[in-house]
């Protein structure tokens, strides 16, 4: 079971929730956790667009668990407290679309070879590992609660006017729009309106260039699938 398999169940639920939000709370900030995030975020956007109330500053796909896993697993490899190994993760939220930028971390940039390959694989497939282990009984409940709270707190700090609150999140983004990929996760500064500034992804290592190459076509498919679902909905 991959996150994309959840599409058939979750797409209509997310669409209907988005339509209700558009009707009764069009100014709400919407934090989407339901999978597949790469498709459900475009579904929310397209639904709100249909209603004429979409504000891209207020819609977020929660990819924080990938950031939490990256810090945790890198910390294990380096034998360091995860708090001291923060990692930016860009792209989307499923397998090959999850691109951890270890080269940008002073602590993790030296990890290489087989250890690097295994670490990246574990970050990309950590969620699937949990889903398999729970064998039909749900997903990463507690760590998602932690990640959801972490992202929500960051957003609330930004909304309250705190400066310099920056974290990766999957938003409507200009970074790869020219390639038909108009949603992307990268570091985003959060401010009084929600999205204040979308940061570029910065310098990549040769390995990360390859990871990004694998990410983009998959992400494009996932986004298009979400949009097509709303276009076909009555
Ligand atoms: N973004 C992320 O990093 C993560 C996303 N997830 C996603 O979060 C979602 C929930 O995961 P779990 O809590 O493990 O699943 P779960 O199966 O334990 O819980 C799903 C809940 O949704 C309720 N539900 C079903 N249909 C509904 C409807 N039409 N309206 C309202 N509620 C409804 C069910 O009664 C159940 O309580 C899944 O889509 C999962 O893939 C989970 C972990 C991490
Ligand atoms: O795959 C799932 O349903 C859960 C998930 O997103 C994760 O743990 O990252």
From TrEMBL:
Reaction(s) this enzyme catalyzes, per UniProt: (S)-malate + NAD(+) = oxaloacetate + NADH + H(+)
Listed InterPro entries: Lactate/malate_DH_C (IPR022383), Lactate/malate_DH_N (IPR001236), Lactate_DH/Glyco_Ohase_4_C (IPR015955), Malate_DH_type1 (IPR010097), NAD(P)-bd_dom_sf (IPR036291)
Domain Lactate/malate dehydrogenase N-terminal positions: 1-61
Domain of life: Eukaryota
An MF annotation (GO) of this entry: L-malate dehydrogenase (NAD+) activity
A Pfam family the protein falls into: Ldh_1_C
Keywords associated with the record: NAD, Oxidoreductase, Tricarboxylic acid cycle
GO BP annotations listed: tricarboxylic acid cycle
Transmembrane regions: none
Segment forming the signal sequence: none
Span of domain Lactate/malate dehydrogenase C-terminal: 63-230
EC primary class: oxidoreductase
E.C. code: 1.1.1.37
Gene3D superfamilies for this protein: Lactate dehydrogenase/glycoside hydrolase, family 4, C-terminal, NAD(P)-binding Rossmann-like Domain
Quaternary structure note: Homodimer.
Family: Belongs to the LDH/MDH superfamily. MDH type 1 family.
NCBIfam families given in the database record: MDH_euk_gproteo
Official protein name in the record: malate dehydrogenase
Source organism (scientific name): Coprinopsis marcescibilis
């Amino acid at each position: 079971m991959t996150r994309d398999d959840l599409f058939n169940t979750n797409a209509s639920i997310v669409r209907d929730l988005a339509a209700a939000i558009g009707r009764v709370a069009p100014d709400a900030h919407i934090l989407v956790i339901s999978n597949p995030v790469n498709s459900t975020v475009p579904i929310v956007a397209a639904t709100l667009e249909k209603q004429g109330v979409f504000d891209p500053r207020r819609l977020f796909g929660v990819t924080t668990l990938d950031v939490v896993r990256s810090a945790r697993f890198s910390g294990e490899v380096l034998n360091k407290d995860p708090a001291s190994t923060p990692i930016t993760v860009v792209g989307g939220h499923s397998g090959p679309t999850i691109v951890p930028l270890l080269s940008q971390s002073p602590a993790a940039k030296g990890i290489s070879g087989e250890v690097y390959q295994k670490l990246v694989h574990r970050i990309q497939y950590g969620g699937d590992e949990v889903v398999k282990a729970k064998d039909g009984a749900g997903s990463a409940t507690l760590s998602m609660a932690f990640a959801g709270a972490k992202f929500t707190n960051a957003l609330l700090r930004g909304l309250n006017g705190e400066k310099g609150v920056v974290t990766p999140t999957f938003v409507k983004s200009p970074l790869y729009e020219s390639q038909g990929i108009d949603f992307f996760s990268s570091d985003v500064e959060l401010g009084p309106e929600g999205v204040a500034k979308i940061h570029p992804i910065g310098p990549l290592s040769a390995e990360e260039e390859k990871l990004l190459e694998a990410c983009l076509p998959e992400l494009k498919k996932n986004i298009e699938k979400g949009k097509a679902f709303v276009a076909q909905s009555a």
